[in-house]
Design brief:
Layout: H1 2-8, H2 15-27, E1 38-46, H3 49-60, E2 63-65, E3 68-74, E4 77-83, E5 95-101, H4 105-117, E6 123-125, E7 134-135, E8 141-146, E9 152-157, E10 163-171, H5 174-185, E11 188-192, E12 196-201, E13 204-210, E14 224-231, H6 234-243, E15 248-253, E16 264-268, E17 274-279, E18 315-318, H7 341-353, E19 382-384, H8 395-409, E20 450-456, E21 459-464, E22 469-474, E23 491-497, E24 500-506, E25 522-531, E26 534-542, E27 551-559, H9 576-590
């Protein structure tokens, strides 16, 4: 209960704090202000503004702005999405959360809980007793969620103020913080529901709560990077703010790429909150995303050599720019040659959001700043056939895919009912931390996309970060092993064709199939260094038992020796899903009517 009181109170307990709060409310309206401002913009860091706008339109009932694709209008407030990595959530900073009000909070939380389970980027924050909603006497019902970028959002049921409700600050001295904003930007001192001290800017509340301990962390680079106040005259506002000894982080100017001639300045707010002051009419800055060029667009490149004369492919590479490229060309894209940079960023972000329910942001390379390259604008990985679609399956291929589907559902005989896993053998090699198979292990996912290549005379070693799989490929001619010996990753044989390293792999055991591939799969991979920082990867799948013709996919790895380090993939050590599945199976065996074993 004490923790909850700290969430909703804006003054510390005690006679002196209460007296200070009364003085704030009673005297604030008559004090001189440096500038009459309106709290009108909240800037959120996100990899894809398009996905940010889409998320708030879908879940918070905001509106998209036709000519500003990075902005969502939520009542009197604009949410503007900055194209930059998010260094952490809003919790612990001077801007703890923002708030939206809905007429039926119980229904809204149930809706969002369902969405979160489906993996669309909604994470609920439960209270210590496991509940999602608190009914605070004389205030309203409330609950908390996080958006995909770490912005903490308080959802409330306040029939008097639906839509965007308030910005909630965190401060060691809440009364002094509110006084600072009142003296510099105005706002009407008031008490929300007679309970919480705050400032009203139009219909938007600015509230504050005591910082639990220490001082707040800086907002810069966090999920909410800064707030913006709109003023009528920048010159007059700047003069007045300087008179009040406000520190300017950036001088007033029309920013490069500004959509209008309105000026913007940055100042340091209290409690390490970054603030922008913008003139009326300011409509943000037009962002320009650089795309990852496809191989055909690159200049000819002279590949460096190893001391023994082979093309040098060594180094740490990542597939992060290729994350999100679909294997096949989406049918709705028709003959589109390439996505726009904004579309490519949105596509990668959608792929990340699809996994957020299972992995927190700390696991995802794209949200932590590890990704230094823009997403590829490549439409699909399949480049042959030219239509970008995988060839039709054979009858055997359809049978294998159906069998794999039934096994995944626990219905191997196809007659039901679904059988839950009873042992590790019922689960895939990936879940069991054995392998992702080939070429599946090479295709990027939402994290652990590192690839390290080490060369020596007669051998090339390729280590993939995911499941820490290492392949040792001989480059001197030799015969493949006999048909009686099969392996998880097959038997590879490498050779050089000019600057391209070619690996031909056969003798798969078929127990880690790729899209239903058989043990007769012949996989041909081609690695070509096409620039100092780009490695083109092509793979050709030839499995006559499964597909009516062979097909080829392609994407690019990017070199990142400077800051990317392959980390230990402690798969077995952290595989709680496996232990929980097995313990559940043992519990079912001991349940009444099943017969204890």
């Amino acid at each position: 209960m004490r923790a909850r009181r700290n969430e909703i109170m804006t003054t510390r307990a005690g006679v002196f704090a209460f007296g200070a709060a009364l003085a704030f409310v009673a005297g604030g309206a008559d004090l001189a202000r440096a500038a009459d401002g309106e709290l009108r913009q909240v800037y959120i860091t996100a990899s894809s503004p398009l996905e940010g706008v889409k998320w708030y339109v879908q879940h918070m009932k905001c509106e998209a702005i036709a000519d500003r694709r990075d902005t969502a209008r939520c009542g009197e407030v604009e949410l503007v999405f900055l194209v930059q990595p998010t260094r952490g959530s809003t919790q612990g900073t001077g801007v703890n959360h923002i708030s939206f009000s809905f007429p039926d909070l119980t229904a809204k939380m149930k809706e969002l809980e369902k969405v979160g389970v489906q993996g669309s980027g909604v994470r609920l924050q439960r209270f210590p007793d496991g509940s999602m909603i608190r009914d605070v006497p004389n205030l309203f019902k409330l609950g908390f969620i996080f958006d995909p970028w770490g912005t903490r959002i308080e959802l409330v049921e306040d029939a008097d103020a639906l839509g965007f409700h308030h910005v909630h600050l965190s401060a060691p001295n809440p009364t002094a913080t509110l006084a600072w904003y009142r003296d510099r930007f105005g706002g009407k001192p008031a008490r929300l529901k007679g309970q919480l001290d705050g400032l009203l800017f139009g219909k938007v509340w600015l509230l504050t709560s005591p910082q639990s301990e220490g001082v707040p962390a800086s907002t810069e680079g966090r999920a909410i990077d800064h707030l913006a106040f709109v003023v009528k005259s920048m010159d007059q506002a700047a003069t007045d703010l300087r008179r009040q000894r406000v520190t300017f982080l950036a001088e007033p100017e029309v920013p490069k790429g500004g959509r209008t001639p309105a000026k913007r300045a940055f100042i340091a707010g209290p409690d390490r909150v970054k603030l922008a002051v913008v003139e009326t009419g300011f409509a943000g800055v037009e962002s320009r995303l650089a795309s990852a060029a496809v191989a055909a667009a690159r200049e000819p490149y002279a590949v460096p050599r190893t001391p023994w004369g082979e093309p040098n492919l060594q180094g740490v590479w990542t597939g992060n720019s290729a994350q999100g490229i679909p294997l096949e060309r989406p049918t709705n894209l028709g003959d589109v040659k390439a996505l726009t940079p904004e579309e490519a960023e949105a596509r990668r972000e959608r792929g990340t959001l699809g996994s957020i329910w299972g992995y927190e942001r700390e696991w995802r390379d794209t949200t932590l700043g590890y990704v230094k390259t823009a997403p590829s604008t490549q439409v699909a990985m399949v480049v042959d056939p030219p239509n970008g679609r995988i060839p039709p399956l054979t009858e055997e291929g359809r049978r294998r895919l159906e069998a794999a589907r039934r096994q995944a559902a626990g219905d191997e005989q196809g007659v039901g009912p679904i059988r839950l896993p009873e042992g590790p053998e019922d689960l895939s090699p990936y879940v069991r931390c054995i392998t992702r198979g080939l070429p599946g292990m090479m295709i990027p996912t939402v994290y652990n996309n590192g690839l390290q290549i080490v060369q020596g005379p007669g051998f090339v070693t390729i280590q993939k970060e995911m499941i820490h799989e290492t392949r040792v490929i001989p480059t001197r001619p030799r015969q493949h092993v006999g048909p009686g010996l099969t392996l998880w990753l097959g038997d590879p044989q490498g050779r050089w064709e000019g600057d391209t390293f070619v690996i031909e792999t056969t003798n798969f055991n078929g127990r880690a199939p790729f899209l239903g591939s058989s043990g007769g799969l012949k996989l041909t991979e081609r690695y070509t260094r096409i620039s100092p920082t780009a490695l083109e990867y092509r793979f050709t799948v030839d499995d006559p038992a499964v597909w009516t013709r062979q097909w080829t996919g392609m994407f690019t790895f990017d070199r990142d020796d400077d800051q990317y380090e392959l980390v230990e993939y402690a798969c077995h050590e952290g595989n709680y899903g496996m232990s929980n599945i097995l313990s559940g199976a043992r519990a079912r065996e001991k349940a009444p009517g099943t017969g204890a074993k």
